[in-house]
Structures are given as structure tokens and as C-alpha cells.
Amino acid sequence: MNSKDKLWKKAVRDQQKRLKPNECQKYIRLVLDINFMSAEFGQYLLRTLRESLDLKYELRTLPVNQCVLWERSMGQLLLDPDEVKALSEEWQLEEHVARILKHGELKYLIRMNLLEKYSNELKTNFPGKQHIVLYMKPKDKPSHRETEALLELQILYQLKVHEVPDDVEELLKELQRLSKAIAEAPYKKQKNEPLSGFKRFLANDKKQCVQVEGCKGFGLLFQQHLNRLPLVTLEVAETIIEKYSCPKTLMEDFAYNPDAVKELAELKIKRSGPKALQTDRRIGEVLAGKLKLLYTTREPDALI
């Protein structure tokens, strides 16, 4: 193995290490708008950030007043055809952008009818990002119009509004929480990629899922599916599966047998326990009709 391969493998290990939950926060920094310097809480916030061991930050002139960005140190390995260069400290912009909204500014936006402009400033200058509003909520109960305005920002203008108590320490805690979530996002995404969507369901990655290996487990999966339906107990599901081993056989019977619903309704439910205590119960026409509608309808809004 030559020196280039060794350095490449070292870089891969370094990148994987940077993704781990205990390490990833070291490679995230805040980018603060330089207007924080003149904000009423700005000096105290910056001083607290300087004293913090968890958060790195950088002041920069940003296109939107009092906004916050996040950057990640990628530590990329640059491979030159002739030589291998060391790790570079390259910073990549994350997909989140937050903006501080004070109570007085919210009242001004309401009075001047500028909520849409406020939203557009974020969306125009940072397209394709996840836009967050950190609203510094006062202790006093908000007026009805203020509550409506915050809902408008969320529902009408599609901004995420996080209400934070009007205190610099609380704002710092919220920035720490967001930084931690953003830092850990790639690790969680990487962890979930091998088993995503339906594969994760089959792989028993979540509670009450069914392990399917090859052809084994499909019967139990069909049984669990039936158990999710109202009126279908474990005994009812086992009775249906004894006649129809999989959904395909049930659907084919509904499609080609005109008496399928009647035959399904007449199936006797197998009961556990002493025979003397058992009652003669059947699937019934109501459940049979619901199953036919479920497995044959092509109307997505059909009421089962």
C-alpha cells in the first residue's frame, strides 16, 4: 500500500469520525450577521459565545439582518495527480438559516403589514434552505393579533417559528440545541440509509415489525396487517389466513368468485381454550364486505 492509499484511508476514517455524535459538534460553527454587534442583546450574546466551549462562531456581513447560518468543516482530501495534499479546512454551508425576531419588531411588522416582506427576505436571499424564526417571546401574554401573526408566518409563509423566552441565556440554549441537531443530522441520515422505507419495516428495525428472510415471514406479515384492521382479532386473522395464505389469493377470490364474500362471512372462527367454553362465531358479512372493499377498490378516498 503506497502513501497515497494510506492517506486516503486516513481521510476516510477522519470523515467518519467527524460524523459521530460525540465529535460532530466540534466541526460546526455559527455564522452571525455583523449587525448583532449593534443589537441590544448582541454584545452580551457574543461575549457568552466567546466563553462557551461548545459553540464556535464567526461574524460576517450577511444579506439579511440578524440572521444565523451554520457551516460544517468538511476536512476534504485533495488528491492531485502528482502529489497527495493534506486535509484542507473547507467549510460547507448547512441547509438551515435562522433569524432573530424580537417582540417589538413583530409589532412593527404587524402595524406596517410587512409579514410577507419579512418572509420573502429570507426566501429570496437563502433559497432552498430551511428557514427558522427564533421569536424572543416576552413574559406578557401575547395579543390575539400577535398570535395570529406567528401562525401566519408558519402556515401562510412556511417558516418554522421557535418561541424562545426573551432572555439571552435562553437564546443561547436554543442555538446550542439547533447546532447539535444540525451537527448530528448527517450521522442519522447515514445510519438510516441502509434500511429506509419499506425495507426498514421488513427488517424489524422498529417495534412490532416482522422479520422477513427469503420467503419466510410473509404469512406473519399478512397476519399483522389484518390485525391492524378494526374488528380483526388474532383468532379472526388466523382463520382468514388458514383459507387465504396471502393477500393475492384473497384478491383473486374476490375477483373471480361471485360467492367469495358469502364464503368468507361463513368461515367459523377458531377459538382457543376448552371446546365446552367455545361459541360458534363466524367472520360475518360486515367484516367480509369491508375486506372486499379494502382489497378491490381503486378509489383512494373510499371509506372502509
UniProtKB/TrEMBL annotation:
Subcellular location: Nucleus
GO molecular function: crossover junction DNA endonuclease activity; DNA binding; metal ion binding
Keywords: DNA damage, DNA recombination, DNA repair, Endonuclease, Hydrolase, Magnesium, Meiosis, Metal-binding, Nuclease, Nucleus
Start and end residues of each ERCC4 domain: 29-255
Pfam families: EME1-MUS81_C (PF21292)
Gene3D superfamilies: 3.40.50.10130, Crossover junction endonuclease EME1, DNA-binding domain
A GO BP entry: replication fork processing
Cofactor(s) named in the record: Mg(2+)
Protein family per UniProt: Belongs to the EME1/MMS4 family.
Record protein name field: ERCC4 domain-containing protein
Organism annotation: Glossina brevipalpis
